[in-house]
Amino acid sequence: MKKLIFLVVSFVAIQAHANSAWLEQNKIVGEIGGWKVYAKERTLNRSSPNKNIFTLSQAIERTLQYQLDSVNYLPGSDSISDYYGLTPAQRSALQQRYSIIYETSKAYYELVALNEKLIHMEDVLDAVESASELASRMYKIGNINELKLLKQNKDLYKKRLEYKAMQTKHIEAKERFIQRLNFDNRNPKIDVDIRLPDPPKESRKLSAKELKGIDLSTTGNPGSVQVRSTARISYESYLEKFNKTRSYKHEILPTQKKISEENLLRYNGMLIDVFHLLEDSENQSKAVIEYIDANAAFLVQSAKLEKDLIDAQMDFSNINVR
């Protein structure tokens, strides 16, 4: 009987200490800035864009104007539908055109993706900095040990380095974009879209002409085999990246959101501490960044696919021209 009473008293004492620590953590979190770093959903304002924003179509138009050979760019060289009626100069311009579109799209999407990732990386850094400050204050009042504090500080140092590296990548992408569009110091400050476009609901299907263009059975020429094989690989890569992006958007991100909701319920039930919530906040932003990477890779591959399919159709038409 005495042993039972001792166990009950011990449990009550432990629970009281846990309640005290939990209340102390919430008090400190409130002093740091509340829950602004937890489950933050940043709404990007699309309603009042900068008047100097360059859309992708504007960027492509500008690069074609400055980079496409005006001597070879003749009427009719922007479509492959009447390829047999084009002159050799027009055929060359058509191929050059799609190459320029691909390179411009790649530079554009990379810059937009880094813009978007930096926003979410700031959320990650906010969460880690808050966790580090919380750890420091909890250590001073004796609620965590020095090992926990050191681990939290190490995470903060690493995250600051990652953020700085992403800022550098953003600067490099901005410079590549400036070079691609032939800007100079006479141009006003140029910005791009604030978010990547959403992936399409359905993947791209190949037309009958495109299927003929990538058919290896109609050629024995090594050069033609390489061009058509490249297009086939490009389409498979397109499908893989499309499926990955769709999975992130419709499976991984919604699942992560449910995990965050469950963690908040567990915190409210005093089953986990505030550090778990801050860690979950970091995981949310990481998942979004991974989605942005997947979407950017898909969009770039979409542009590359168009170029590779044009190359294959041109090769097919050149061999079968009459």
Write a concise synopsis of the structure shown:
This protein is mostly helical.
Give an overview in words.
The chain has 322 residues and is an all-alpha fold. It is built from seven helices and two strands; from the N terminus they run αβαααβααα. It has a single domain, classed as Up-down Bundle (Outer membrane efflux proteins (OEP)). 72% of the residues lie in helices and 1% in strands. The chain is elongated, with a radius of gyration of 28 Å. The N terminus is likely disordered.
Tell me the radius of gyration: 28 Å
Tell me, rounded to a whole number, the average pLDDT. Answer: 81
Biggest sheet architecture: 2 strands, parallel
**What sort of overall outline do the alpha carbons produce when their principal axes are compared?**
elongated
Helix content: over 70%
Q: Report low-confidence residues grouped into runs of 5 or more.
A: 2-18, 41-48
